[in-house]
Design goal:
The complex is a heterodimer of chains A (about 775) and B (about 240). Chain A is an alpha+beta fold and about 775 residues long. Helices cover about 55% and strands about 20% of the residues of chain A. Chain A has four domains: about 1-50 and about 255-380, no CATH class; about 60-205, no CATH class; about 380-450 and about 635-774, no CATH class; about 460-625, Beta Barrel (Barwin-like endoglucanases). Chain A contains 28 helices and 20 strands. Chain A is elongated. Residues about 330-335 of chain A have low confidence and may be disordered. Chain B has one domain (about 5-240): P-loop containing nucleotide triphosphate hydrolases (Rossmann fold). In chain B, the strands form two sheets. Chain B has a six-stranded mixed beta sheet with strand order 6-7-8-3-9-10, with helices on both faces. A four-stranded antiparallel beta sheet of chain B has the order 2-1-4-5, covered by helices on one side. The chains are: A alpha+beta (about 775), B alpha/beta (about 240). Bound molecules: adenosine-5'-triphosphate and magnesium ion (MG). Magnesium ion binds near residues 58 and 59 of chain B. Chain A: It is a multi-pass membrane protein.
């Protein structure tokens, strides 16, 4: 055993570069796998994960304080079937005077709670501290969502129900148990009229069980005391479609990552053993038994592999958290960011799977070497020759290509197995690049359309007296013409919302009406056309699906005492399924008291948005201008995650090429020596080695690009269906001939980058020795 | 013989010009000294055999002349070119133009036919494939192995391989042919064939520098023997060739 260990150590020492390459490849591969699986994990069922992490409330119950006796509510927490409970907490609905992160001015639900932890609904206090003293409030907000500088929500002063409060913390609750929290003593100042209790039950799988649990609660308190309940299943249904849109493409990356990593690691490790055949022969001649030889080789590759695997897992874990935060930043729903975290299974897969893969990849050729006689093993060390390879060499030799190039092109055929594995890695690498490119193009096009293609730059809201804001001094039509008369304005459109109902349906919907230009809607229409006059509506894909409506259908809008027939003339790219877009007169027909709520202002190019905003405020202090938000969270997320994974996968594939060149050069050092002895220049050696991989790169491009295009064509519609987006053809067919040509070249670039360093090393190799001996 | 490098000076009866000049060449590998100050001149048309015990520095000396390795000190001048002043590319171009090398273990490319192995030497200099193959064919013809031109090294006998290697070395009409134990891996019959070949080459004017253990090879092919011991020239003798 000692002899085995020593021989393995000596072998490692003599193969520093190879050992380093194995460690590096395993490291980057493990990192890729950890990040890819981590992304996948975070995007799959994020609600469930976040819910489990926070011990979310399966039922959030609101009781009428006046209808219950003290102690009665506390008794419900000890009812049979209740697994855990928090509360009772006093609860008030009060008016907020100004926007705080995601909360608009208006009524907010405030709960008096002593601390964010507890047996149920462990609120994630991600910024500041909990509201414990008088005058302090914590607002709910998705993690990371706050402004910097003077507009930061944290530290700002607000009034809630007329009481001045300072925002001391920002927190998120997956159970969405409140808009804001204050201390139990502070809540009395807000005149609470209801009481909140948060429950987890022994049986809460499915709506039926939740209904039974709620019924038991209702029975335990006086009639009418339980005023509202919220099931976690409803919350989950409401949010689930957002992240699931990311799952299909993260799946593709995850699978690509696993495949490329496995291929490269297998290739690098088996290559190390195959290139050691001569050495194996020598070891056998020295008297090592076949089993000892296998042990030496397993040790030789396992040591760097295990080191790489451990480091890669650790680095992957380190990188994952900020990466995921970055990637999922801004995606709707706090739960997504709350679901992020290291998942044990990903690390277990990496830590067990990678060494297993390494041992398997080393074992197969080791066992072959085990069976070889010492003499055969020694002669197997030089590159083998095959019938087809020879024919190809003969034909290459007769071409007009420079001889260094034609020699290089023939090299891959001498080691078909190794070349095939390298090629496969390059193919997948190119497919990844292609897929990521297509995805980015689609998401960018989608983001641009969502933003209305620059159809307006400024939104102007009106102050509302009922929320304690200054109301505008002008009337609705006056505001529209006022905004249009200010310098820089080109077009002003008034918009508003009106609730309505579809004849025959209990559920309500909302009309979003436009007065002026509807370019904003027009840019979003992907099927049919925008509305041109009264009686026409445009609807998002989610609406059409949910209500079973198709383009061209005639519907009847209803409000109390009025009805209005409309035709669906267009489908938008995406949008809230409960909103349809109409002309102003259509909305007016069902809601005659309609006035403008928001004005969209298109500015002449070059106009200073800030200056225009100041002019608006000066003209009427009741108007609240803001620049249109231009980030598109979904697109940013998709592009950011695909870029990172593409870079990682590209690095792994390039390392695979690197390794192949190192092995080829080592096995062929006699040939290299001879070639130099007959006058091959260092540059010609470099060209030859790079050409050998460049050919693989070109083949990889030719095979990888169609694969990536195919993956894109398959995944984008799935993503769209999951996310309620109807990608129109121009957003799916994003391939331009120029881009395709560049992508085809990406394989060559990848292979060349990977091959360059070891090729130059081969060119500088001193070969005087190998020529005379061996 | 197509080799037109038959030395014109020799033909004219003038003193043949110096092809190789080593001046106080030393080569150290760490502590060990492989060459400890070797000075040597080889004139055009000569056939010089370097002999000596294993490890005395013969191969190292040959590497210096071929520009495959650089001396630790001293000067190596071949065909008027000072090798110490050349960079790697310069050395490669020098080898291409001036040197042909033959090794004990042939060093043929396994995946090229005999013909393509020989043609390779010319193709590296940019000679078109057709032309290079034509010349390779001529050389194989002259060396008596034309019928084996499409065979691969794996199926050639040792003697045939070595003749292919010699053909490759002659491809670019080198001023100097270097051979390191060219018969070392061959049986006596094949060895003799190669010896005859080298002798023929020298007789039509090819300058030859041989490294060998084998006194028979030396006496048969060389007209001068340099004895090397511990990295130094221990003696020189001129020979009347046996063959
Ligand atoms: N690259 C090298 N690194 C270290 N030592 C070397 C190297 N090349 C040669 N030597 C040493 O230099 C000395 C001369 O070696 P060389 O190969 O020239 O001997 P040789 O006369 O050709 O021997 P042989 O007849 O066995 O081929 C030897 O001691 C050898 O160990
Ligand atoms: Mg030697």
């Amino acid at each position: 055993m000692r002899a085995v260990w020593q021989a393995a150590r000596a072998a490692v020492r003599r193969r520093r570069l190879q050992t380093l390459v194995i460690a590096l490849v395993v490291l980057v591969s493990t990192m890729t796998i950890v990040v890819a699986l981590g992304l996948l994990d975070a995007a799959t069922a994020p609600f469930e994960r976040a819910f489990a992490r926070q011990q979310g409330a399966q039922v959030t119950a609101t009781f009428d304080a006046a209808k219950t006796r003290p102690g009665q509510l506390a008794d419900t927490t000890r009812m049979p079937g209740v697994a855990a409970a928090a509360g009772p907490f006093d609860q008030a609905v009060a008016t907020l005077d100004q926007p705080v992160t995601v909360h608009d001015p208006g009524p907010v639900t405030v709960v008096g709670r002593a601390d964010p932890a507890g047996p149920v609904d462990r609120v994630n206090l991600w910024s500041g501290h909990w509201a414990t003293g008088p005058g302090e409030v914590v607002f709910s907000s998705p993690p990371g969502l706050d402004h910097d500088g003077p507009h930061a929500a944290l530290g700002s002063r607000v009034t809630v129900g007329g009481v001045p409060l300072t925002v001391v913390g920002l927190a998120s609750s997956v159970s969405q148990s409140a808009d804001a929290w204050v201390s139990p003593s502070q809540i009395t100042a807000l005149h609470p009229t209801s009481v909140q209790l948060l429950y987890r039950f022994a049986h809460a799988d499915g709506d039926a069980e939740i209904r039974a649990d709620t019924a038991a609660l209702r029975a335990a308190v006086p009639g009418g005391a339980l005023t509202a309940t919220q099931s976690y299943l409803d919350l989950e249904r409401a949010v689930e479609h957002v992240p699931s849109a990311f799952v299909p493409f993260l799946m593709v990356f995850g699978i690509l990552g696993l495949l490329v990593s496995a291929l490269i690691v297998g290739n690098v490790v088996s290559g190390a053993v195959v290139s050691g055949f001569r050495h194996i022969g020598v070891l056998k001649a020295l008297g090592f038994t076949p089993n000892q030889v296998v042990a030496i080789y397993l040790l030789m590759v396992s040591v760097p592999a295990v080191v790489g695997c451990l480091l890669g897992t650790a680095l992957g874990d380190l990188a994952e958290q900020p990466l995921l935060q970055q990637i999922f930043h801004g995606v709707d729903g706090a739960f997504l960011a709350d679901s992020l975290g290291l998942s044990a299974w990903v690390n277990i897969v990496a830590l067990l799977g990678m060494p297993l893969l390494v041992v398997l990849a080393a074992l197969l050729p080791s066992l072959r070497a085990r069976g070889l006689s010492a003499a055969r093993a020694i002669s197997a060390g030089s590159a083998p020759r095959g019938g087809r390879a020879l024919g190809i060499q003969r034909r290459l030799s007769a071409t007009r290509l420079p001889r260094s190039v034609s020699l290089g092109l023939g090299l891959p055929f001498a080691r078909p197995g190794r070349s095939a594995l390298t090629l496969a890695a390059v193919v997948l690498g190119v497919a990844t690049v292609t897929f990521a490119n297509g995805l980015a193009a689609t998401m960018t096009a989608y983001g641009n359309a969502e933003e209305g293609n620059g159809s307006y730059q400024v939104e102007v809201d009106t102050g509302r007296a009922e929320f304690g804001m200054t109301p505008p001094t002008h009337t609705d039509p006056q505001i529209q013409s006022l905004l249009g008369s200010l310098p820089g304005a080109v077009q002003v459109t008034a918009t508003t919302y009106a609730p309505a109902r579809l004849a025959g349906h209990a559920k309500g919907l909302n009309l979003r009406a436009y007065r002026g230009s509807s370019a904003d809607v027009g840019a979003l229409v992907v099927q049919g056309r925008s509305f041109h006059g009264p009686g026409e509506i445009v609807a998002p894909p989610g609406f059409l699906e949910e209500w079973g409506v198709s383009l061209g259908d005639r519907l009847t809008l209803q409000t109390a005492g009025r009805q209005e027939p409309v035709t669906v003339v267009g489908e938008t790219l995406s949008g809230d399924p409960d909103y349809v877009f109409t002309d102003w007169s259509t909305a007016l027909a069902v809601s005659p008291t309609l006035t403008g709520r928001q004005y969209l202002v298109r500015l002449a190019s070059g106009t200073d948005v800030g200056a225009y905003g100041r002019a608006v405020r000066a003209a009427d202090p009741g108007l609240r201008p803001s620049a249109k938000v231009t980030v598109n969270a979904g697109a940013t997320t998709a592009i950011a995650s695909s870029t990172i994974l593409t870079l990682l996968l590209g690095a792994v594939a390039a390392l695979g090429v690197f390794n192949t060149v190192v092995l080829n050069a080592r096995e062929r050092r006699r040939d290299l020596g001879m070639l130099k002895s007959i006058g091959m220049t260092p540059r010609q050696v470099t060209v030859m080695m790079v050409a050998s991989m460049g050919a693989l790169g070109l083949a990889g491009g030719l095979l990888g690009v169609p694969l990536g295009v195919l993956a894109h064509a398959l995944v984008v519609p799935i993503t769209g269906r999951a996310g309620g987006i109807a990608f129109p053809a121009p957003m799916v067919e994003v391939w331009h001939p120029g881009a395709i040509a560049l992508l085809l070249l990406s394989g060559v670039v990848l292979a060349t980058l990977g091959a360059l360093i070891p090729s130059r090393a081969a060119a500088r190799l001193t070969i005087a020795q190998v020529l005379h001996n061996e | 013989m197509t080799s037109r490098s038959v030395n014109e000076a020799a033909a004219n009866g003038a003193t043949p010009k110096v092809v190789v000049r080593l001046e106080e060449v030393r080569k150290e590998f760490g502590e060990a000294e492989a060459l400890a100050g070797v000075s040597l001149e080889i004139r055009a048309g000569e056939a010089v055999a370097v002999m000596g015990p294993s490890g005395c520095g013969k191969s190292t000396l040959l590497n210096m002349v071929a520009g495959l390795d650089r001396p630790s000190s001293g000067r190596v001048v071949v065909h008027g070119e000072d090798l110490t002043g050349l960079n790697e590319t310069g050395l490669a171009l020098f080898r291409r133009r001036r040197i042909g090398m033959v090794f004990q273990f042939f060093n043929l490319l396994d995946d090229l036919s005999a013909l393509d192995n020989v043609a390779l030497a010319a193709q590296l200099t940019g000679t078109p494939a057709r032309q290079a193959r034509r010349r390779a064919q001529e050389l194989l013809d002259e060396l008596g192995i034309a019928d084996r031109r499409n065979a691969y090294p794996a199926v050639l006998s040792g003697g045939e391989r070595q003749r292919v290697a010699v053909a490759r070395a002659l491809m670019n009409r080198p001023a100097l042919l270097l051979a390191d134990e060219p018969t070392g891996a061959l049986d006596s019959h094949a060895g003799e064939q190669v010896m005859d070949l080298l002798l023929d080459l020298n007789q039509i004017g090819q300058t030859l520098l041989l490294v060998t253990h084998d006194p028979r090879l030396a006496t048969r092919c060389a007209n001068r023997v340099v004895d090397l011991a511990d990295g130094r020239v221990a003696g020189e003798r001129s020979l009347e060739r046996a063959g």
